[in-house]
Amino acid sequence: MTAPFAIEHSVAEQKRAQIRDAARIMGIDETYLSIMVDEFYARIRADARLGPIFEAEIGKNWGPHLDRMKRFWASVALNAGTYSGRPVAVHQNLRGVARGDFDHWLGLFRATLDDTAPTPEAANYLLIRAERIAQSLRIAMFERDEDGVPALG
């Protein structure tokens, strides 16, 4: 008879499990993220400034876009690993986006969280991630040196 053994999870797997557990305690799960994404993009579409920018890019493909955003947020919030894409490259190709639009985007996101988040902790957790995303996109799109390299400070 062979000796029993245990397969230990990697540190990365343990970290992903901790993230999912913490999110679940805050009330964040895929059901909530779906509600959040649907509500947020309804606000985007109705917005006088951002609505036309998104509409010009997405057109009639809102279903696939919303599905992609739900996978994105599941990966961001739950470390689900369900999204693969290049959000920076996609956003760099958008026309009509101004630097200040990211603050407006964050304002709509914050209002969505205020109205939908299951707990204040969930709202804060998701807002911190949205702020990091907005900052990364802002740097990639508007803060480049003369060689086109994103500025890091």
- Strand content bin: under 5%
- The succession of helices and strands, N to C, reads HHHHHHH
Helix content: 55-70%
Residue windows where pLDDT falls under 50 for at least 5 positions = none
Largest sheet: none
CATH topology: Globin-like
CATH class: Mainly Alpha
Radius of gyration, taken over Cα atoms and rounded to an integer in Å: 18 Å
Question: What is the tally of helical segments?
Answer: 7
Quick structural gist:
By secondary structure, the chain is an all-alpha fold.
Can you lay out the helices and strands and say which pair or pack?
Elements lengths: L10 H16 L3 H17 L3 H9 L3 H17 L8 H6 L8 H16 L3 H23 L11
Structure write-up:
It is a single chain. The chain is mainly α and 153 residues long. The chain has one domain: Globins (Globin-like, Orthogonal Bundle). Helix content is 68%, strand content 0%. The protein contains seven helices and no strands. The chain is globular, with a radius of gyration of 18 Å. The mean pLDDT is 87.
What key attributes describe this structure?
single chain; 153 residues; mainly alpha; Globin-like; 0% strand
